[in-house]
Structures are given as C-alpha cells and as structure tokens.
C-alpha cells in the first residue's frame, strides 16, 4: 500500500464516520486544522453546534497519543459567528513517543486530502529569550529545525509528488498575513496577556534542554524551545497549506552555568557542601498547569482569529 493510498483510506473512514454521526455537510470539508498542544486541548470548548469526535485509534493509519494532556482524537465542528468549519487535533503525536516523523505528520497529510486551507499549530514551550515570562504567548515567525539539521526530517525519503515538490521552500513557512491578522485581533479584543513574535527551536525530546543547550539556542537566535510543531509545519507547507504557529511559554529555561565543583574544591568546601541544583527545573506537570491557566485567553483569541479566516 502506498502512502497516498493510506491517506485516502483514512479520509474515506473519516467521511463514513461523519456521514453516520453528523448532518452538517461542511464538516466533510474543514477549512482549518487546529493542532492543540500540551494543556491547550481546551480550544475544543469554543466549537459550536454539533461536533463529531473520532478517536485516533479508530482511524486507519493514525497512531495513538501517549502523552498526558493529549486526548488523542479528531474533533470536527465550527468556530465563531461565521461558523468556520474546523478539525481539531486534540493532542498531537511526537517523535519521542517512538513514532517516526511520517507517523507524526500523518494527520496533517490526511487533513490535506480533506481540503484544509489553513493550519494553526499551538504548543507549549520553554522560554529561551530572557524577556519572555511564563504565561506569555509567542507568534512564531520562523523556526530552527535542530533535528532536521541532524537528519531527522519529515520529508526524508521518497517524495509524495501528488502533494508537493521534492525541495519545498520554507522562507515563508509562517504566513505574514495570518500573523498580522492575529495581532490585529488581539488588539481589537483588548488582550492583556503579553504576546511576542519570534523563533521556535525544535529538538526531538523528550528530555528538556540543558543549561548549555539553552545558551546555544539563544546564540543561534531561538526565542523558545520545544519538541513539536516544526515537523507538522514542514509537511503542511509541502502540501500547500497556509500555516500559523502559536507558542505558550510555560517555563523559562535555566541558562546559567551549573555551580563549579572545581571552585568549591579550591575553596576547601567539604564534599557534603550542598548546592540546590533542582531550583527552577522544568516538569511536564508545570507545562500542563500553565496551559490550563492560559486556556481561557487562548480560547478567546482563537475564536476571534478563526472567525476571520
């Protein structure tokens, strides 16, 4: 079975499921794909009218989401007064779960066959830029694909010519007009939460960044660091889907060098000398907590933003 046949098989299953569970014909042709990052599954609450939820494990070709805070299902519905038809990924798939990047991006390929025009990818991330604080939002203007530079790229292998070119350009990966529209929407609704614009840095995970890696990312020009989004953006752009990315800063990454044992030795400090290296450490629980706290503002922004697409 070719990859294209796998996408078509998944699409036909989704169509059959929608036909059985909804009378809304526009749900068959969602305009927007929204990928809900860690702690941001609450975006589903802004869908109006009847919705249809399809667990990943029921869809041919889809893998199962294994990360806490990721529901693992597609949710079809409408958003805003204009009732824009959307499909939400309630939880994404990650390379670090043991899936290859073709599996991680499979839902994006299927969304392309459904006729999606726009993709909104949200994520939780660590703040590398020293001016960013936990709870801030960042509109992604560009990314640094550390994993891709090391050979882990979702477009590696035979090109799917029916979907896009062998060598797609990525200089326009994050659409300028969508970014401008989002900032205008935030101003119109009087959003108080800080919203930056900057560079997302992708690594495979699942470990959080070391102090030295944080300093390297900052030196390279990255503003935040995360373990998702970039593979999905690359495949979406390969398919011709117009992309927008939004990051929620859930923690600030420690970048100061660790305390020196050598200097402690030279000072004659005993081996029992205690240094608290755990202060400021990141945890997934912290990521989910910040996501839940920000979800109300993110939902208001998303509803107003998607309503204009």
UniProtKB/TrEMBL annotation:
Catalysis performed (reactions): a purine D-ribonucleoside + phosphate = a purine nucleobase + alpha-D-ribose 1-phosphate
Record-linked NCBIfam families: PNPH-PUNA-XAPA (TIGR01697), PRK08202.1 (NF006054)
Protein name (database record): Purine nucleoside phosphorylase
Molecular function in Gene Ontology: purine-nucleoside phosphorylase activity
Limits of the Nucleoside phosphorylase domain: 31-255
PROSITE patterns: PNP_MTAP_2 (PS01240)
Broad enzyme group: transferase
